[in-house]
Design goal:
Structural class: alpha/beta
CATH topology: Transcription Regulator spoIIAA
CATH superfamily: STAS domain
Number of domains: 1
Largest sheet: 5 strands, mixed
Strand order of the largest sheet: 1-2-3-4-5
Order of helices and strands: EEHEHEHE
Strand content: 25-35%
CATH architecture: 2-Layer Sandwich
Length: about 90
């Protein structure tokens, strides 16, 4: 199961598993994001390569307009996935 929603503080919370089944929901939601936005991964259990692809595509789009994604709440496992994918310098981490 996957859920994505904007919190009252403006951050976006991802919950569950971001995989091929949930990719369309995440892609559609994130396509509407503008500016600099914090993504909270505290409740995300798993991210597949398709999820990484969605995040990198949105990051590139946002950087072109002086925005970007700030990633927070990454578990050690998810942080390792991002590092292994070579995204250490692509995203800002909080």
């Amino acid at each position: 199961m996957f859920d994505i929603r904007q919190g009252t503080d403006g951050s976006i919370r991802l919950t569950g598993r971001l995989d091929a089944v949930s990719a369309a929901v995440a892609r559609e939601f994130l396509a509407a994001v503008t500016g600099t936005t914090r993504l909270d991964f505290s409740d995300l259990e798993y991210i597949a390569s398709v999820g990484l692809g969605i995040l990198i595509a949105q990051q590139r789009r946002l950087l072109d307009t002086d925005g970007g994604l700030v990633l927070s709440g990454l578990s050690p496992h998810l942080l390792e996935v991002f590092d292994l994918a070579g995204f250490g310098d692509v995203f800002e981490y909080d």
